Amino acid sequence: MNTTSLRLSALALLVASLAACSGMSQRDSNTATGAAIGGVAGAVLTGGSTAGTVGGAAVGGIIGNQIDPNKK
Q: Could you tell me where the DSSP H helices lie in the chain?
């Protein structure tokens, strides 16, 4: 799979996952968004390796879960 198709697939997955967040709490939405962005970043940075994608999603999900939009 070439880089362009990988990026387009990742973008489509990100858009689909964000659309599914409409009924979630803010924390759940942040977690899902962080996991999606982390998974895409992990895939791009590691050339599409499974370990990089899963690791990026895990780290992104943890970071997204810890974001508090009401914190100043």
A: 3-19, 26-45, 50-66
Q: What is the pLDDT of residues 11-66, one digit of tens each?
A: 777 777 667 667 788 888 888 889 989 998 998 899 888 899 899 999 999 999 99
Dist CA 71 CA 2 (whole Å): 41
Query: How many structural domains is the chain composed of?
Result: 1
Report yes or no: 15 and 28 within 8 Å, Cβ to Cβ.
Answer: no
Asked, for residue 41, whether it belongs to a domain, the answer is: yes
29 in any annotated domain: yes
What is the pTM assigned to this prediction? Answer: 0.66
Q: Is residue 72, in this structure, part of any structural domain at all?
A: no
